[in-house]
Amino acid sequence: GEDVEQSLFLSVREGDSSVINCTYTDSSSTYLYWYKQEPGAGLQLLTYIFSNMDMKQDQRLTVLLNKKDKHLSLRIADTQTGDSAIYFCAESLNNAGNMLTFGGGTRLMVKP
Amino acid sequence: NAGVTQTPKFRVLKTGQSMTLLCAQDMNHEYMYWYRQDPGLGLRLIHYSVGEGTTAKGEVPDGYNVSRLKKQNFLLGLESAAPSQTSVYFCASSLGLAGAGRHEQYFGPGTRLTVT
């Protein structure tokens, strides 16, 4: 079956880098995603990576994918207080990205 | 362009009562989804629809029904609410197409439901 796991909590100081980790079990994943949820709001897609890529960079965000270990990470450079939120990784098993399995979410707290 | 909207935002039900949650999207998306969010469990898919008039079961469908009579609306019904259905419910929609940039799911703001 599908299972996506994340640590529950991460605390960093403003200006430091944050690294949020995720492990998944299904090796047939096509896309892997990072979503951000701010308090009282829905989820917003931050970035995604196709399964044939190892790395994707988008401004302050770097996604690393290790398919052998089924490990996905999100690095946020120069973390700001506005980055405080819950971050969810998710995997999709089809090319249309329609059936997503989410991890439990990592709450990132950024201290000034 | 409102995106994905959900009504109501909050609701308290007594055990055994029924209610319907409404989701609407104005992006002409084919696919729509209902999720529930519980602490530490992430989002779990309840039901989804791949087009007007279609519905399908997700991971946790028991106790819920859905209907997609119009392309822009997706309704989630609870016929006899139970305390285990206390949760935050999110609706989402997507184009339903393969390929980079076309499969993103857009989420509504959520409905917080408490069943006592």
Blueprint of the fold:
The complex is a heterodimer of chains A (112) and B (116).
Chain A: E1 4-6, E2 9-13, E3 18-24, E4 31-37, E5 43-50, E6 55-58, E7 61-66, E8 71-76, E9 85-92, E10 100-102, E11 106-111
Parallel strand pairs in A: 2-11
Antiparallel strand pairs in A: 1-3, 3-8, 4-5, 4-9, 6-7, 7-8, 9-10, 9-11
Chain B: E1 4-7, E2 10-13, E3 19-25, E4 31-38, E5 42-49, E6 56-57, E7 65-67, E8 73-78, E9 87-94, E10 106-107, E11 111-115
Parallel strand pairs in B: 2-11
Antiparallel strand pairs in B: 1-3, 3-8, 4-5, 4-9, 5-6, 7-8, 9-10, 9-11
Structural account:
The complex is a heterodimer of chains A (112) and B (116). Chain A has 112 residues and is mainly beta. Chain A contains no helices and eleven strands. In chain A, β9 and β10 form a beta hairpin. Chain A is globular and about 40 Å long. Chain B is globular. In chain B, the strands form two sheets. In chain B, strands 2, 4, 5, 6, 9, 10 and 11 form a seven-stranded mixed beta sheet that branches. In chain B, strands 1-3-8-7 form a four-stranded antiparallel beta sheet, with no helix packed on it. Chain B is mainly beta and 116 residues long. Chain B has no helices and eleven strands. Classes of the chains: A mainly beta (112), B mainly beta (116). The interface between A and B is medium-sized, with 25 and 25 residues.
Task: Identify the notable features of this structure and list them briefly.
heterodimer; A: 112 residues; mainly beta; 6-stranded mixed β-sheet; 0% helix; B: 116 residues; 7-stranded mixed β-sheet; 4-stranded antiparallel β-sheet; globular
